[in-house]
Design goal:
The complex is a heterotrimer of chains A (283), B (785) and C (156). Chain A contains eleven helices and twelve strands. Chain A is an alpha+beta fold and 283 residues long. The chains are: A alpha+beta (283), B alpha+beta (785), C alpha+beta (156).
Chain lengths: 283, 785, 156
């Protein structure tokens, strides 16, 4: 093992500095935000990257901007701060719940939005399905410039992202939709959820659903939208029982992942109940 | 003399624990101390071809390396089948292969990585079904060569130990025309103690002796086991025990102490060894997984004419505690109820999995689960209310236990009445949210693991007393509350003025250890005797000073006085000081051991305890709500009526009950250990092994039942172990009542419950338990021939 | 690369590798053994310390991330005698093995400072990341509610 020329952790003071440091470190480098995943690498028997670049001091990484038509969330925003900032915003309640109920209070104070989205090995990330429902986009910065791509595209590419790139912020659109986040921990709280169903629904004046976004997390290795359920929800007024029935009919689309915490069939089997709960939270 | 030791006395260690000042073993260090690490096998079974430590030994900072050649001895509670390092054969994932000590933990880890190991894989038996299959590979091919400490248990191949009970003619009972035969099968997984302080040790080698400072419940076992492993006289080992950060039975056996001792001797330096959490998970000495078949012949009136059962206990790769615990089936699965005829077989089975061990109410929790669920199945089969069936059949005064011991006093029946009253005082939970509601009441039989204990009380000239025992404070508070209360009450001084010495095998006499509910009873009995010895000496001396007879004197409130108004007298300090000057310092010693309640001759074979000295009974009740969509069980409330004999400190007992019940809720609902086909434990820490969190618990409603017969000092019984006993049983019965499904396994995780509700779960079959009782036995019941 | 920080009001410098968990620096380098490394995965809370006033799991915090921060451990919190929550825990006979309490006290001190009149469910939720294996939690929850109740009485 050749020791890296760089310290094991360099705390970058600015974005420019962080990008330079990541570029210099190349394949040896990796960003470190809250540390709540990376610091557990030894428990997973994973090697740590030789040279982390700490993002905790990067100016602007912790910003949350709530505009009338969109919201910008810096990658360094912690779950706790996000939940607090979105507490009273009706259309972002799903995201607020995802941020406010994940893990436990101390981890929520440390774990960041960027970390949650970038950790390819973490299937139970709460923010991912919530942001998929908001059709979020992410900004990826490198010394070459800034690139913006959909969260879906990012999820597909994140494991093979080239060195020197950094997720800097998340853009989500605001709307008249209402959102909810149904998660299922095995205990009352404190677990990673074995299944997550996030939902954002826009209704007309008569209460009919004109647009539905549903995303499922933790059931498969990577969270994804559930277009068939979205279609089933669209048209009639929102109704918990019919959402549950539709989810029951459609749940076979998912191939639940086997885990130490729960078998694959279970993750799929609880989706109808989560669909019902999510809808109930919107009524 | 009557002693009133009942007090609401607060523990003296709370303040330091709350301010972070308490120094547990993991917080201890010594100048120049080395850091040790243990290399562990990564396969479940194999022939150990090479362990080459030469490169590792040459690395910078490495001061000592130890392998099997350094530890020739074997140890075991019943059978000496445990070598410190794998001895030519690897038997489980995690088995030690070598140990190193280096200047830094990083250097120690680097040394482990440099040890060259070659293991030739062998077929493994990972489940008891595999281990008992015809022609199964043997975990211990040389089982016949091992030293067997007590005689009587049958052994062969992968059956490490077999204990049997036969009382009466069971075949005749089952053949009666007026009985219904009910058969049930059960299976439970392992439970991890998750003690917060991992196994940890700091060892030194000084003046040709080992000094081991360790986080243990059993200082004398550590002393004796270390000596056996290392092949040295036990007198060369001294064990001292700092405050222990949780144990629950985990620390009732030798663990990593001998590695540190060995490395300390080799290096000449103090050596620290602390298990990582992963090592703790890997080598937990879990509560064992078990499989149970139980069959009863019952009349329509609920009379249990006959009962038979086979219990399989997985001991993992070493017999360990499980060999001893085969005994407990007689007193747990064979407990609770009046039985006409009974036969029980309990088999400890070797598998290529990490060794199991002791855990709070060992064996009792799952046998109580099986017995109480079986009892509910009997009630359903004969169409009787389950509570009524229990009222009719629980053990009462003069009834025979499974091994023929005679139980004294009606205890369980009045406790059932008390539970009804307790329940009536609280409003039942309304569940109208679509969840399934269920309730259950169960009974349980447990005991106090008595046995040898020693105590010395030194009366100090300042009026304080020093209590010296081999007791350990593991968190239960016995050393902080019960024991000083007993000594203080006997000597008429304040409990604050009793100094309690923590275990040091050089200072105090032998003790079995802290566990089995024995601390306040056995150590209490020894402490009481020692204090009475001191009391008699002080009274005799004071009588001379006061020109009275000892019978005329009262000893209370820090004074010895002539009884009666305005009685002349002295402070105890003054008497102690004057006695010290005249006679030398006043001290007393006390000892206690098993009293030995008889069983019926011929009833037991292979048992370590034929009858229980101090039975302890428990009645639990709970209400649950089950989510039919997700399988989540919520315990709505929980009630305990516990037989405590006499409650010395109600607050302390209340704390044990709340904590024990919550550990039981974990066992019943959340705490799951799974072992994959390669013999790896899949749960590696607090993320995957789910213990109850603050949001998962309820305040337990408690009624302490006092006055039941007890051979314990001052009429007390152990109160800290039993609270966990029937939690799995009660929750399982309540869930079965809620769902209408046959609950046969624990833990009742949401996937398992949903599986039951969806009918995904086939009825539990245990084909490796033979339908005919006799076909399960290595040899017919009876003494060894 | 040394890391400067303030620990319990004193300026301290760690010489450890910047990725070293803060818990190891506190315990092994600064000999503050109150915080306990129990799970090293952020689930048990026994290593909780305050970093710039926020309860932080020091097992998952690289020491460099605590650079220039104000760190308070259980030793620092207790330097002027028992705090309210510690007193209530002592009076309530809540302590058993005690290993979780340094972290419990840090979490509850912060929680009670920011939530003056919590209900039972809020206390429980605040303790989601602080495991106790001995006590079954109720006395800890009661102690927290008693602190809040005592304050309410004090105002009357």
């Amino acid at each position: 093992m050749t020791p890296s020329a760089h310290p094991s952790l360099y705390v970058a003071p600015s974005l420019e500095d962080a990008l330079n440091a990541l570029a210099e470190r190349g394949a040896d480098g990796a960003p470190l935000a809250g540390g709540t995943w990376i610091m557990r690498a030894p428990l997973r028997h994973e090697a740590k990257s030789p040279a982390f670049v700490g993002l905790g001091r990067v100016a602007g990484f912790g910003r949350i901007e709530v505009h009338d038509d969109h919201v910008i969330i810096g990658a360094g925003v912690t779950h706790a701060r996000l939940a607090e900032a979105l507490r009273d915003i009706p259309d972002l309640q799903g995201l607020a719940a995802a941020a406010g109920r994940s893990a436990n209070p101390a981890v929520r104070r440390a774990a960041t939005v960027g970390g949650n989205l970038c950790t390819a090995g973490f299937a139970a990330a709460d923010l991912v399905p919530a942001l998929l429902c908001l059709e979020a986009e992410v900004e990826i910065a490198s010394r070459a410039g800034v690139q913006r791509l959909s969260l879906e595209a990012f999820l597909a590419a994140r494991a093979t992202l080239e060195p020197g790139r950094l997720l800097t912020q998340v853009h989500a659109l605001r709307s008249s939709a209402r959102s909810a986040h149904a998660r299922l921990p095995l205990r009352k709280a404190g677990d990673y959820p074995v299944a997550i169903l996030s939902m954002a629904v826009m209704r007309d004046d008569a209460g009919r659903v004109v647009r539905a976004r549903v995303a499922v997390g933790s059931v498969e290795a990577v969270a994804r939208r559930w277009p068939a359920l979205e279609a089933a929800l669209t048209g009639p007024p929102l109704d918990a029982a019919s959402a549950e029935r539709a989810a029951t009919d459609l749940a076979g689309e998912f191939d639940g992942r086997e885990g130490v915490d729960a078998p694959g069939w279970y993750r799929v089997a609880v989706l109808p109940a989560l669909a019902r709960r999510a809808v109930a939270a919107l009524l | 003399m009557t002693v009133d030791a009942v007090m609401e006395f607060r523990r003296r260690d709370a303040r330091d624990k709350l301010t972070g000042r308490t120094r547990y073993t993991i917080d201890r260090a010594a100048p120049g101390m080395l850091h040790a690490a243990v290399l562990r096998a990564e396969v479940a079974s194999g022939r150990l071809v090479t362990v080459d430590t030469s490169k590792a030994a040459a690395l910078p900072g490495v001061r000592a390396v130890a392998t099997a050649a350094d530890a020739p001895g074997r140890f075991g509670i019943g059978v000496s089948d445990h070598s410190l390092f794998a001895d030519g054969q690897v038997r489980y994932v995690g088995e030690p292969l070598a140990a190193v000590a280096a200047d830094t933990p990083e250097q120690a880890q680097a040394a482990l990585a440099a040890i060259e190991v070659a293991i030739e894989p062998l077929p493994a038996v990972v489940t008891m079904a595999e281990a008992l299959a015809p022609g199964a590979p043997l975990v211990h091919p040389d089982w016949q060569d091992y030293e067997v400490l007590p005689v009587g248990g049958a052994r062969a191949g992968n059956v490490a130990w077999e204990a049997t009970v036969v009382r009466g003619d069971v075949d005749a009972a089952f053949a009666r025309p007026d009985v219904t035969v009910v058969e049930s099968t059960f299976r439970v997984g392992r439970q991890n103690h998750m003690a917060f302080e991992p196994r940890a040790v700091v060892a030194r080698y000084e003046e040709d002796r080992f000094h081991i400072e360790t986080s243990t419940q059993v200082p004398w076992t550590i002393r004796n086991a270390t000596a056996r492993f290392l092949g040295v006289p036990a007198s060369q080992v001294r064990v001292t025990v700092p405050p222990v950060g949780g144990a629950f039975g985990l620390k009732f056996d030798v663990a990593i102490e001998p590695f540190a001792a060995l490395l300390a001797k080799k290096s000449g330096r103090a050596v620290r060894l602390v298990n990582s959490r992963e090592e703790e998970m890997l080598t937990c000495l879990f509560r064992e997984n078990a499989e149970i078949l139980i069959r009863s012949a019952v009349t329509s009136e609920g009379e249990i004419a006959g009962r038979e059962a086979v219990v399989l206990m997985d001991c993992g790769a070493h017999g360990g505690e499980q060999i001893f615990l085969t005994t407990m089936t007689a007193h747990t699965l064979g407990g609770n109820y009046k039985l006409g005829a009974v036969r029980l077989a309990t088999r400890a089975v070797y598998t290529n999995t990490p060794p199991n061990g002791a855990f709070r109410a060992c064996n009792g929790v799952y046998n109580t689960f099986a017995l109480e669920r079986h009892t509910d199945e009997i009630a359903a089969a004969i169409g009787m209310d389950p509570l009524e069936l229990r009222r009719r059949t629980v053990l009462g005064d003069g009834d025979l236990g499974a091994t023929g011991q005679v139980f004294e006093g009606d205890v369980l029946r009045p406790m059932l009445d008390r539970m009804e009253a307790l329940r009536a005082r609280t409003t039942p939970h309304e569940v109208d949210d679509g969840r399934l509601y269920g309730r259950a009441t169960t009974v349980g039989t447990w005991f106090v693991f008595t046995g040898p204990s020693a105590a010395t009380v030194n009366m100090n000239a300042d009026g304080s007393a020093t209590l010296v025992t081999s007791g350990v404070e593991i968190g239960s508070g016995s050393m902080m509350q019960g024991l000083p209360q007993i000594v203080a009450a006997t000597l008429g001084i304040r409990p604050e003025d009793v100094i309690v010495r923590q275990a040091d095998t050089d200072a105090a006499g032998y003790d079995v250890g802290v566990g089995g509910g024995r601390q306040t009873t056995s150590l209490g009995a020894a402490s009481l005797a020692a204090a009475q010895d001191v009391r008699a000496k002080l009274l005799a001396f004071a009588a001379q000073l006061l020109e009275a007879t000892p019978d005329d004197l009262v000893m209370a409130n820090g004074r010895i006085e002539i009884a009666g108004p305005n009685g002349k007298g002295f402070t105890i300090a003054e008497v102690a000081a004057r006695a010290q000057a005249a006679l030398g310092p006043i001290g007393g010693t006390g000892a206690a051991t098993r009293t030995g309640v008889p069983s019926m001759p011929g009833c037991v074979a292979g048992h370590f305890i034929d009858a229980i000295d101090i039975p302890v009974f428990a009645v639990h009740d709970c209400e649950v709500a089950v989510d039919r969509d997700t399988g989540h069980v919520e315990v709505l409330n929980y009630r305990v009526v516990q037989d405590v004999g006499r409650a010395l400190n109600r607050s302390a007992i209340g704390g044990q009950i709340q904590g024990g019940v919550v550990q039981g809720l974990g066992y019943a609902l959340h705490e799951e250990v799974s072992i994959d086909a390669l013999g790896h434990i899949r749960q590696c820490g607090f993320e995957t092994y789910r213990v109850p969190l603050a949001g998962d618990v309820v305040p337990v409603e408690v009624d302490l039942f006092e006055g039941a017969p007890s051979l314990g000092p001052l009429g007390i019984k152990g109160a800290g172990e039993v609270p966990i006993l029937n939690v799995g049983a009660t929750v399982a019965c309540a869930v079965a009542n809620a769902t209408g499904r046959r609950v046969q396994e624990l833990p009742l995780t949401p996937p398992r419950i949903l599986s039951l509700l969806l009918g995904r779960e086939p009825d539990l079959a245990l084909p490796h338990i033979q339908p005919a009782f006799a076909d399960n036995l290595l040899r017919p019941h009876g003494p060894e021939v | 690369m040394p890391t400067d920080m303030t620990v319990n009001g004193e300026a301290r410098t760690s010489a450890r590798d910047p990725l070293t968990p803060l818990i190891d620096v506190l315990r092994d380098e600064f000999h503050l053994t109150g915080a306990k490394p129990v799970c090293r995965e952020g689930f048990c809370g026994a290593c909780t310390v305050l970093v710039d006033g926020e309860p932080t799991v020091s097992c998952l915090t690289p020491v460099a991330m605590a650079g220039d921060c104000d760190v308070v451990t259980i030793e620092g919190l207790s330097s002027c005698g028992l705090t309210d929550i510690q007193s209530r825990l002592e009076q309530g006979d809540a302590v058993q093995c005690g290993m979780c309490f340094p972290g419990m006290v840090m979490t509850l001190s912060h929680f009670l400072a920011h939530t003056p009149q919590p209900n039972r469910d809020e206390v429980r939720a605040a303790l989601t990341g602080n495991i106790c294996r001995c006590t079954g939690y109720e006395r800890i929850v009661e102690a927290a509610l008693a602190v809040a109740g005592g304050r309410a009485e004090g105002r009357r």
